[in-house]
Write a structure and sequence with these properties.
- There is one protein chain.
- By secondary structure, the chain is of the alpha/beta class.
- Helices cover 18% and strands 31% of the residues.
- Strands 13, 16, 17, 18, 19, 21 and 22 form a seven-stranded mixed beta sheet that branches. It has a five-stranded mixed beta sheet with strand order 8-5-7-6-9, with no helix packed on it. The protein has a five-stranded mixed β-barrel with strand order 23-26-25-27-29.
- Strand 25 and strand 26 form a beta hairpin.
- The radius of gyration is 32 Å and the shape is elongated.
- The chain starts with a helix and ends with a strand.
């Protein structure tokens, strides 16, 4: 059987980064910059007030106190957004709002709280140093400065900066577009009445969510039965829109393995990987589009996604921390594992807030159809191929899924 590491390399080699694209600002959150962003202008673009108050010449109010205030005529009113150039004459004040442009000649802003807030002649009850409560042009960003770097994740703050610089679009590494296909004649959509022998389709819903959580885009998630022609037709309808195809089911050794039957003629290599759950796997290409075929049992499908697909997909999108955090924890129970296969058991990871010691217990049976337990687990216990028994108190490797 193929080792887990070997199949990880095979899958990773199939997933390729897309060429950078330039998209509107609103569509870039959570993506990664493909180019540096150089500021086309300075921030602030002009000297402006940091407070609601009065623009003054600092020397005019140098002796002002609450007991001996200085009185100045208010010559202008400057709301934020006023665009005509103004000049402050010595011995006068301009009432000014936060963000409004500082008039030429003004050297300080006195907050309204230190005045009587008058609009004709203002009583100023405190002094101000030159530059006080003034935002100088370029003190945040100087035009020509690289403010965001290629490889940086676009966050709300990064978007705010780009918008403040007047940028309407950014060049980014695009999301991987993934087609998810779930197979099986027994599958029906949730909400549909079940006939005897039928089950609700869950893999496509689950994997589509896992892909979006990993940062990818799901182009479609059709479900097909075990008819080869129908499967091929559905594949042909969507393949051109996808960078990657993921199928679930139809890859084992039964009589109705639609994925094997449809793609087994040299397009996809079907192998057994030395792991539990998730032994039957496949990889290859359909008309030049990479395809990864996962087993049909729900736990096998999602564990396979975690082990083989999540990391290379995130790496192809340039996203930070492509791998799930790996930790070592103390096992709180005895466990057995099939020798010769790497086992991924559902688990509950806990950390003592005082000591920082991580402990873990397995959660639910190891069989691949027990989806309930995976839904409530917060980690995977990784038990290597050579280990058949683990005693409580042993240190084990854990994939943190939180």
């Amino acid at each position: 059987m193929r080792s887990v590491e070997e199949h990880q390399r095979v899958v990773a080699d199939l997933i390729r980064r897309r060429a950078p694209i330039t998209v509107p600002l609103d569509d870039t959150l959570g993506l990664v910059l493909a180019q540096d962003v150089v500021a086309p202008l300075s921030l602030p673009g002009f000297d402006n007030s940091a407070m609601d108050g009065y623009a003054v010449v600092a020397e005019d109010i140098s002796d002002a106190t609450a007991e001996q205030p200085v009185h100045l005529p208010v010559a202008e009113d400057i709301p934020a957004g006023r665009t005509d150039p103004l000049t402050l004459k010595p011995g006068t004040a301009h009432r000014i709002m936060t963000g409004a442009p500082l008039p030429t000649g003004a050297t300080a802003v006195i907050p309204v709280e230190a005045t009587n807030a008058a609009t004709d002649t203002v009583e100023i009850r405190a002094s101000a140093k030159p530059g006080q409560h003034v935002r100088r042009a370029g003190e945040d960003v100087t035009a020509g400065t690289t403010v965001l770097r290629a490889g940086q994740l676009i966050t709300p703050a990064a978007l705010g900066l780009a918008a403040a610089l007047g940028l309407s679009e950014l060049t980014v590494i695009p999301r991987q577009r993934v087609l998810v296909m779930s197979t099986g004649s027994e599958l029906v959509a949730p909400g549909t009445p079940l006939e005897p022998g039928q089950i609700y389709e869950s893999n496509a819903v689950m994997l589509a969510a896992a892909l979006r959580d990993a940062g990818a885009e799901v182009v479609a998630a059709p479900t097909t039965g075990d008819d080869v022609a129908v499967f091929r037709d559905a594949l042909a309808r969507h393949t051109g829109d996808a960078d990657l195809i993921i199928t679930t089911g139809g890859v084992s050794a039964g009589a109705y393995e639609v994925v094997k039957d449809a793609l087994g003629a040299g397009q996809v290599e079907f192998v057994k990987v030395a792991m539990q759950p998730g032994m039957p796997q496949g990889s290859g290409a359909v008309d030049g589009t990479p395809i990864i075929t996962l087993p049909g049992n729900p736990v096998s499908a999602l564990v396979s996604f975690e082990v083989f697909l999540r990391s290379p997909l995130r790496s192809a999108m340039g996203l930070p921390h492509p791998d799930r955090p790996r930790r070592t924890a103390v096992l709180l129970e005895d466990l057995t594992s099939p020798r010769g296969k790497r086992q991924f058991r559902r688990g509950v990871l806990d950390t003592d807030p005082q000591t920082g010691q991580a402990t873990v217990t397995s959660y639910g049976p190891p069989a691949s159809h027990h989806l309930r337990w995976l839904a409530s687990a917060n980690c995977l216990l990784e038990i290597d191929e050579e280990t058949a028994e683990l005693a409580g108190g042993s240190h084990v490797h854990v994939w943190d899924l939180t």
